[in-house]
Specification:
By secondary structure, the chain is an alpha+beta fold. It has helices at about 30-45, 70-75, 90-105, 145-150, 160-170, 175-195, 230, 265-270, 295-305, 325-335, 345-350, 355-370; strands at about 5, 10-15, 20, 55, 85, 110-120, 125-130, 140, 205-210, 215, 250-260, 275-285, 315-320, 375-385, 385-395. Strands 2, 3, 4, 5, 6 and 11 form a six-stranded mixed β-sheet that branches.
Length: about 400
Amino acid sequence: MFTKAFIPYGGYFSSPFARWQGSLANENGIKLAAATAKRWLAEKEIDAGLFEYLFYGFTIPQNHGFYASPWAAAMMGAERIPGCIISQACSTSTTCVYQAALGIEMGDYNKAFTLMSDRCSNGPHLAWPNPKGPGGELETENWLMDNFGNDPWAKNAMIETAENVAKEAGITREECDDLAMRRFEQYQDALADDRAFQKRYMFPVELKISKRKTITFSEDEGVAPTTAEGLAGLRPVLPGGVHSFGSQTHPADGNCGLIVTDQQTAKELSSDSGVEVQILSYAFYREKKGYMAAAVVPAAEKALQKAGIGIKDVKSLKTHNPFAVNDLYLAKELGIDAHGFNNYGSSLVFGHPQGPTAGRCIIEMIEEVAQNGGGYGLFAGCAAGDTAAALVVKVTC
């Protein structure tokens, strides 16, 4: 359990998420994330030079990704701070925040910045040397699609892991469609009153179209209008499966950032001195191969145990749910209502840029807890390789 790591209230942002091959499809994810963070810091009147370390998280290589962390730091305006790259599939943001908190706890530094981004669009197509191939032919890999479609250890596609869990737990197509509809309705709450909830944390992206023209990208792109009738009419992705394209997430592009500091610095940087956000615990788990969606439950239970609380103590539960079965299984195992969490939507609806997805969910979780007077927040989400990670925070108002 952490005792020294805090997130300044309001010390975070998430860009809107763009649909796959949409508005951000041709932007270098590292450059865009750094530029967005620089503008956000300027608006907050925070000097990037005060940070002592940068954790940069991404999962899909971008040009010059070899230098991602120190390059991003320099572009943000912090030319003299070191950093490292973290890539842990869909748990990337959670692990970046954890590593930053761990450094605070150990006294390695007092002020860290976590920056996460991904551009799933126009992913790299890699060629690997293959001396034993016929005629010396290259071995190729489409980074995004090939890895979504094949786990080299479990020998299955990601959606197969969700179907495996659904079959073992007795989860039906109707339950998946019903939950997908519920998540879409919850996302509509985030758009109410001129997007009042999203405007608590969402920061627009500026795109330079030409030397003279710059446009602002300020709202999620690619959220599909959803109806119960429309969901029922979709074919299952796999024959006999419970998931359609309406009850699983979609690849996206975007970025987010969170400040992690000691308690005193968090107070100084907070947008509201009356609100305190403390990081309490982090946990991880790996399930049997081919059952990724099930890994979330033990990860969440371990994080709650480390924090010294139970699921009934949680004011806001947010999950990364690439498949509807994730939340249905979690609710079944923890004895809670699947319709009662992921308020204001989830990655099932607004998309999944991988690197920043969990970060945005953590940010929304903090804001929801603060909006409701404080308490505990739990984030939990799966990741490639049948793994999962979870994080507990305490918000005091």
